[in-house]
Amino acid sequence: MRILGLDYGSKTVGVAVCDPMGLIAQGLETITRSEENKLRPTLRRIEELIAAWQIETIVLGYPKNMDDTVGERAARTEEFARLLSRRTGLSVILWDERLTTVAADEILAESGVPAAERKKVIDKVAAGIILQDYLDHSGVRQRQSAAVEEN
């Protein structure tokens, strides 16, 4: 079961994918667009990735405020989730992404990636963190382990 992880931003979408067993997420790419509302090329690229990786579910980072309220960015993410679901026919799961970009920046800094280079990959790293967090908390691992034990 392949799952696509997305970190939706105003001009970029970080993309990650998990392995077929649903255990490990890896950053794939960052999709960029010139204007926030120009979504067609972004959606087209996501559809290409869905076909290429045989994606069954999408996990979309949900940028709630630190006090757990839904602000403007989260409302736009909800709109994007509805659009993605309609366009792809796949289930789109909103997953709390608070502080993932901070965590991604820390990981890249600790890895010795210069600040100028971090901007190019931070969104796909954040998408990987979002997806890995989902995998770790969703029970995908427990279901896979149970299936292995039954055999």
**CATH topology call of the domain at 1-24 and 49-70 and 87-111:** Nucleotidyltransferase, domain 5
Largest sheet data: 5 strands, mixed
Distance between the ends: 18 Å
pLDDT < 50 stretches = none
What strand line-up does the widest sheet have?
3-2-1-4-5
CATH C-level name of the domain at 1-24 and 49-70 and 87-111: Alpha Beta
Mean pLDDT level: 89
Tell me the number of strands: 5
* CATH architecture type of the domain at 1-24 and 49-70 and 87-111: 2-Layer Sandwich
Secondary structure tally, helices: 5
Radius of gyration over alpha carbons? 15 Å
**Helix and strand element order:** EEEHEHEHHH
Strand content: 15-25%
Report the helical percentage: 40-55%
Overall geometry: globular
Q: What structural class should be given to the helix and strand makeup?
A: alpha/beta
Corresponding CATH superfamily of the domain at 1-24 and 49-70 and 87-111:
YqgF/RNase H-like domain
Question: Which helices and strands occur, and which strands form pairs?
Answer:
Layout: E1 2-8, E2 12-18, E3 25-32, H1 40-53, E4 55-62, H2 72-88, E5 91-96, H3 100-110, H4 115-138, H5 140-150
Parallel strand pairs: 1-4, 4-5
Antiparallel strand pairs: 1-2, 2-3
Helix pairs in contact: 3-4
